[in-house]
Amino acid sequence: MASPSPIRLRVEGMDCGACALKIETAVNRLPGASDVAVSYQNETLVLNLDEDLTPAAKLEDQIRSLGYAPSALAEKTRALPIAKTAEPWWKTGKGKLVLMTGLMLAVGLGLERLLPAYALYITSIAALISVFPFARRAVSGALAGSPFSIETLMSVAAIGAVFIGEGEEALTVVFLFAVGEVLETVAAGRARAGIEALIGLVPRTARVERDSGVEEIQAEALEIGDIAIVRPGDRIPSDGEVVEGESEVDESPVTGESVPVFKGSGSDVFAGSINANGVLRVRITHKAADNTIARIIHLVEEAQESKAPTARFIDRFSLWYTPAAMLVAALIIVIPPVLFAQDWTTWIYRGLATLLIACPCALVISTPTAIASGLAAGARQGLLIKGGAALETLGKIKTVAFDKTGTLTRGKPQATDVIALTGNEDDLLARAAAVEANTSHPLGKAIVDAARTRALDIPAAFGGSTAVPGKAVTARLKSGFVSVGSPSFAASKAALSDETTARINALEEEGKTVVVVLGGKVAEGLIAIRDELREDAKSAVAALKARGINALMLTGDNRRTAAAIAAQVGVEAEAELLPEAKLARIAQIAKDSPIAMVGDGINDAPALAAASVGIAMGGGTDVALETADAALLKDRVSGVPQLIALSRATLGNIWQNIALALGLKAIFLVTTLTGATTLWMAILADTGATVLVTLNALRLLGFRSR
């Protein structure tokens, strides 16, 4: 027997969670189908299928019988998705049904006026013709395991109306139902536009260097190592590294960063970014199908395909809600005539209206539409959230734990103080840079960078340098041997005055690492180095506290440095934690209340995984996109309170939608039982609620956190 093979289909015509649930139920009943995942937001069906048991053609036939149009979809890894060109509504299958049912309504009512003696027959026949496509879908759904579909409720109501002589009402109900389906499709399309807008950011062509000169090629033909020429005003065709040229680049389409970023030789650039002024030569580092935009799109699609806890609850709720509604409608029809001698026709009419009001579409769509809009809104602001579960949990977070290096701080130590004990500062810094010229140590790099920033003439070292790990680096310069080492190393080699020792202690109290520059056995000066705070770290922590969220810092750094950084930011600090200790601390807090861990996505991977929600820092890097539950593409701490604000806005939107859906149904149920609601008003109650819920969810696309 052949092993199951992965199948990916685009399924056009899905516009709500009920559609997805119907397809999922039908496909799960097919022999050999497993791991079925349906997303109405993306119009996709993904599954594993043993084609010895069920051929792919039979799978597609099953989907078509339910009223949807399946087509093969390329694997995500093969190419960047292509935004679909929306068809005019009248050319879609649902649009054609609107035209057909509208024509039948016009013909039926027209002939009714011309031939009043046959009015009942004319409208009844027209109604049965109109309802036939929906009844056929209802039967197919019932045979495929969904007997209580929306089409079932509407078909029973329309056919029932015909049998009690309400042909006009039946015609109107079918027409309004068809119109409602088109409106739902249009609204669902608006929700999808949030992701399709990202697809449009990537240029379809690129200008690349070839032996014969500069050629324009398709962007998807780019290979790693190609040199692309990006002119002012052009979009960067794929991720790469600048090899020549300087310019400001607008990265807002990718990271949400509002200010253009300066790029020069060695700078990383992202696909879809806009080159502002100078010409850039960019070495391509990712193919078009694997660039930042493509990965964001795929990750957001996968996030939308995964169901949030509330959505899963609503799905389970709808499984018994619809049959319960049919039972209630049946009781409304039977009890008053049987027990209280009421008129059968009146209560059959009211029972049928109840059926229409009970359609669960608005309820089923209430959560996934809000989640999809929230995920899309986040992606457009550089806040990548990997699923509805993470988006929901973020709104319930009570504590946020931050790593220090690379999270609250920039992750790049800088020389902050240069103190010459003999001679002048520039000479001291140049000699220290000569000793550290070939080092890979972050502190040594900070010294060399400081010397280059001052444009100092760095002397040559003879015979390279010698390092004593954790203590010092020594090199022979023209003036003699020079060492750059720790205060303890310096104290073992030279006598440090009380004043010098006091200055070292004062600098260390500020959270700085101090190195001593020795010329032979004489202390010539001090250089203080510190990994500086991110500009927005303090304001981000303040924003969290304003929302009632506790913040703390977990770091492996020494207590003195940790305390100095924590005091600047305004957080509690727990220092000198080994990775396993940090993991245990996160797990301990998570037992009592939800906690988010914010780290760089590499060293903090265990802690990120243990947290209720792991948030990775990183400006579009592979690690930031593939680690944890959320990633801050802006590489700013302020993204954390923005994530939480987005989550809370989404949760609020979900509950508004649920209240809207159930509230309208409750109101119309009362008016139905009192006889104030007609069948066409009942179908408008469901369709109207569905459209209102969708439009409310779409408001999230405009979300902006203060």
TrEMBL record:
The chain crosses the membrane at residues 117-135, 142-164, 170-189, 319-341, 347-365, 654-673, 679-701. Belongs to the cation transport ATPase (P-type) (TC 3.A.3) family. Type IB subfamily. It comes from Asticcacaulis aquaticus. This is P-type Zn(2+) transporter. InterPro entries: ATPase_P-typ_cyto_dom_N (IPR023299), ATPase_P-typ_P_site (IPR018303), ATPase_P-typ_TM_dom_sf (IPR023298), ATPase_P-typ_transduc_dom_A_sf (IPR008250), ATPase_P-type_domA (IPR059000), Cation_Transport_ATPase_IB (IPR051014), HAD-like_sf (IPR036412), HAD_sf (IPR023214). The lineage of its organism: Bacteria, Pseudomonadati, Pseudomonadota, Alphaproteobacteria, Caulobacterales. It catalyses: Zn(2+)(in) + ATP + H2O = Zn(2+)(out) + ADP + phosphate + H(+). It is a multi-pass membrane protein. Its EC number is 7.2.2.12.
